[in-house]
Design a protein that fits this description.
This protein is α/β, with parallel strands linked by helices and about 325 residues long. It is about 30% helix and about 20% strand. The chain has helices spanning about 25-30, 105-120, 135-145, 165, 185-190, 205-210, 240-245, 265-275, 290, 295-310; strands spanning about 5, 20, 35-40, 45-50, 60-65, 85-90, 130, 150-155, 215, 220-225, 250-255, 280. Strands 3-4-6-5-7-8-11-12 form an 8-stranded mixed β-sheet, sandwiched between helices.
Length: about 325
């Protein structure tokens, strides 16, 4: 793969990546897509939609759901590689990205948001849903409530833990107070950090995500999330019970070097999903698999979803 030193074409130069990036990345981020919104329980939910490459009306649907404090553009360099086979949407959960905020948040509301996007985007009957990290938590709730309406659920490096492992790990602290306002956009981009903290060899992807993570505010720029959506209570729902109750096909993908999907966590999740559910490890990937090993992640998703398309329902 060759590496180009030019910035990605963008209508807004602030979003153009400055770091050297390979051709596949530049190709992906300029693929045509639509920016759309659907109202769910009084809250505007934003999503991006990539049309199927062949414009086939009967193409299977695929919804991509981001992690905590993230947004739909965490998938914008992944989705085009799936649009050859699927009609693909990537959404912003409420309180994150370009979606609206709520007075309260829970997984049941988020499940309704996810279902609404699949319908509004025209993803067809029994779409597949992929959820990374926090999005995987929300996917367990969606698939436990609406599993008969899904083709399959793919949970990506979500640390659903046993009661024993949960008790040994404290919940993250609440983020109180107003968000920091950055005077300068480029200064804010330079301060973007991944959580959990990790290195990433693909600096161009981290920069791309950072540039799409900011929004204007009085006096400058702030990160695109509602602090009320980032409290520790978001991890306290019975996600093990939700996963155990999933009625559609399910699979788990995790990074071999993940700080969150420990061997004990993976074993617990595999037991909840049952022996027929695939558990796929991506070599050399940490928690943010699509950043660390984007093309290997695409290959794994393609193979898994293609197999599901050709197999009968569990």
């Amino acid at each position: 793969m060759s590496v180009n030193d030019h910035a990605t074409s963008s209508a807004d130069d602030r979003l153009a990546v400055r770091k050297p990036a390979p051709d596949w990345f530049h190709w992906a981020v300029v693929r045509p897509k639509r920016s759309l919104t659907v109202a769910v329980e009084g809250c505007p939910i934003h999503y991006l939609l990539w049309p199927h490459d062949g414009n086939a009306a009967d193409a299977p649907g695929l919804l991509l759901v981001h992690g905590g404090g993230a947004h739909a553009n965490w998938w914008s360099f992944i989705a085009p590689f799936l649009a050859h086979r699927f009609r693909v949407a990537a959404m912003d959960l409420s309180g994150m990205g370009d979606s609206g905020s709520r007075e309260r948040y829970d997984a049941t509301l988020r499940a309704a948001e996810m279902l609404a996007v699949t319908e509004h985007a025209g993803l067809g009957p029994r779409p597949f849903v992929v959820g990374h990290s926090f999005g995987g938590y929300m996917l367990t709730r969606m698939a436990s409530l609406y599993g008969e309406r899904l083709g399959g659920a793919v949970i990506v490096d979500t640390p659903i833990r046993s009661p024993e492992e949960t008790a040994s790990r404290p919940l993250p602290r609440r983020r109180d107070g107003p968000k920091r306002v950055y005077d300068d956009f480029e200064d804010a981009v330079s301060r973007f950090r991944l959580l959990p903290t990790q290195d990433c060899a693909n600096a161009f992807i981290v920069e791309h995500i950072a540039r799409h993570s900011l929004m204007p505010a009085q006096g400058g720029w702030v990160w695109k999330f509602d602090c009320g959506a980032m409290g520790p209570e978001r991890f306290t729902e019975p996600f093990s019970d939700y996963l155990r109750a999933v009625s559609c096909r399910r699979a788990y993908i995790h990074g071999s070097r993940s700080a969150l999907a420990t061997p004990a966590t993976v074993t617990w999740i595999a037991g909840l999903m049952g022996p027929r559910a695939p558990v796929i490890e991506i070599p050399e990937a940490q928690h943010h698999i699509m950043l660390d090993q984007p093309l290997a992640f695409v290959a794994a998703l393609r193979a898994l979803l293609e197999a599901w398309l050709h197999d009968g329902q569990d």
